[in-house]
Each structure stands twice: as C-alpha cells, then as structure tokens.
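Molecular record:
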Amino acid sequence: MANFSKSTVPQFSVEVYQNEYLPEGDREVNAIVTVTSTGGGTTGRRSLTGAPAATALPGQGPNAAVVIMVDCSGSMDYPPTKMRNARDATSAAIDTLRDGVAFAVVAGTHVAKEVYPGNGALAVADAATRAEAKNALRRLSAGGGTAIGTWLGLADRLLASADVSIRHGILLTDGRNEHETPEDLKAALDACAGRFTCDARGVGTDWVVKEVTGIASAMLGTADIVADPAGLAADFTEMMENAMGKEVADVALRLWTPVGVEIKFVKQVAPTVEELTERRTQANTRAGDYPTGSWGDESRDYHVCVQVPEAGVGQEMLAARVSLILPAADGTSQVLSQGLVRAVWTDDMVASTSINPQVAHYTGQAELAQVIQQGLEARKSGDFDGATAKLGRAVQLAADSGNADTAKLLSKVVDVVDAATGTVRLKAKVADADEMTLETRSTKTVRVKK
C-alpha cells in the first residue's frame, strides 16, 4: 500500500480473486482485481448547512480544473424550459466548485464559444467568480447546430492552460452530432483522450446513446440520460461533487506477464463494464499500461484473462503481476500497490473445476451488458424473436446476480413471465426514454454478493 505526503491523497490497495488451480492441459487463467483507494477525504463532503463544501481541505491546493460544456443548439429551445434547466444546472455545478479550482463555461453549437471567463483563460473559483459565472449564464441562448468535437477541442485548450493534475469536463447535449462527421468526433476524442476525463449527459430523448456513451468511454468518464430536463440541476450537482472528490489523476493498471503468456483481455467490470484491452500502451518489454483515469475514495473491479503455456501436474507459475502505477512528469513512475495472478496445475478435479465466485459473477455481468445491447439492436431492426431471446437472457442474468436496478429497467421494455428461466414477452409500446435509459445504463454492474 502506498504512502503519500499529503493526508488528503488516497492510498491504494490491490486484491486478487481467482481459482489458481488448473487441470492438466488447461491454459486460461482468470482473475478479478479489486482496486481500492481510501483517505482522499473529499467525496460527498457537505457543509453543516447541507450545502456542498466549497473550500479545500487543509493542505490541499487548487489541484483541479473543470470545463462545463453546455449544448446551446437550436433544439435546446424546444421546449424553452430545457435551456432554462440547463442554465440552472450549470449554476448548481458552479456552486459546487471548491475554492481554488480553475474553471470555465463553454457554449456548444456547430462551433464552441467561451461563456466565462473568456479570452482563453480559466477563472479561479471563489465567491466573486462564482457569482460572475452565474451572471454570465444569462448569455446562454439556443441557436445553431451541433459539433461536439469542437466543444471538446476548446475544453482541451482551456484545461491545458492550467498547472493542475486533475482535469475534467462535463458535457451536456440534447441532440445528434449532425454538424461534423463521425470521423471528426473520433479525431477529437483521440486528441483529448488521456488529457482530461469527461462525464457526458444526454437530456431529453432526441440524442444518440452510442454517441454519448462513446464520448464518456473514450474520456474515462460516466454517461447517463436525464430524460426530464427538470432533473439536470441535481445530476450536475452530483457530477461536480464526484469531480471534486478526485485526488489522483492518470493512474494506470500495469500488467506484467512472463515470456509465453498471452493477454486475452483486460476490462473494468465494476462499477461499469469498460473494455480496456485495446487501450494498452507498452511500458517495457514485458509490461503494458491500461488507463484508469482519476481516483478519489472509491473501489473498482477489473477482469484480467491470460493464456499461459501448457504445463504438467504439480507445476506452478506466476501468470501475471498487476500494479497500480502513478507516472511522474520526469518520466519515472511510482508503484502504488500490486497483486499477483498465479497458475497451479493439479489432478484434483474438485480444486480445478471450482469457479471463483467473483470471476463467475462478473462474467455474468459482462454478458448482461452485452445481451441488453444486442437485444435492443434486434428490437430496433425488427428481429423480435432475437430481441425476446436476448432480453430474456438479460432478465435471467439480472435476477441471478441481484442487479435490481437493471431488472427494473428491463421490466419497462419486456413483460417478465419467469425471471428464473428468462421467459419474457416484448412490450408492444415502449417509451423512448425507457429504452434509452436501459441502453445507456446497460453497462452498470453490481458488486459480487458477500
């Protein structure tokens, strides 16, 4: 476990859950790696009045910068309350900023414009700048198109001007990204990835789920739907509180493997399913780093699957070493914590066929996310038999794992006849908001039952 000079910075621990025993000839090793950070001390802090705490903890400097990107395209005026709710939500987020945090507000249409403070600068949060920023929100009005890549590009330039370690964006959109190509958006995401994290929200039901979730995934942030614009203020407040709880940025999950070991996949499996395999960057000859973004007081689970060389009964080997790495500006890195993944070959059938409960649970959760997305795609394409089969399997998996939130969302898309067997009927009519909520939140998981 790592020790830091500031008491407000988290300490990290790594725990590995696996069945290390393999039958002769078996080569696949699975492990769930639980990473926990504790001692950050800011997540969810509130003042004695119940309002979010706006001041930094003792010894904590202004180590964060945030840019809020607000969709101001023409569709935000339909209904007019949507734009007003967006202003109110941005105001609530500004109120949640800690003193000393650098921030800016951007209006997004087919171009990106600075709303506050302007001139390519960031303001430093205090009572005066919060008041000025909220006053500047009156200039937000709807009109124009949507080119989200330009919003992200401006946010990147603004955040890059801050000498801080935590850089974060909050992005709100209500429509399709119609005024730039998918290639333009991907290029912008590729350029911004690793430079700042970003939470994305879709308001109403006229936006594209895969666009919003794709932005959040690329930027190691969260994605969600706010179907009723009246809920924006509460959602923005929660997002900003979570952002203010981050204390360490750019933590990497480093996977070292011996000669002959092949990495099949690395994915985050809690609190959401996030594929990391293709995001590997080579650290040295035998090790690669997978990005995890910023951390406060929290715990996440990762599924590591490797293929080891064949071995005989009685042999054992280190299949992988998992480390949490914090890179430094001078090119060095600090090991925050680490755990080991082992392989032991045995002729004990009971030992070798036992499935570790954490591995079994998260294998099911990953399948749950996949079959929901496949089922909704089948439904949209008119393949109702395929949709029924996939969504029925999703109901079964949600029930088995105790994922009550996902089960509730599924019940708005299908009529559940028997959850245990996954017997369902597609509902004849489904509200757009219900379908989009299920799709957006399909990757959210529950922790393994203790």
Notes: The CA atoms of residues 204 and 227 lie 4 Å apart. The mean pLDDT is 92.
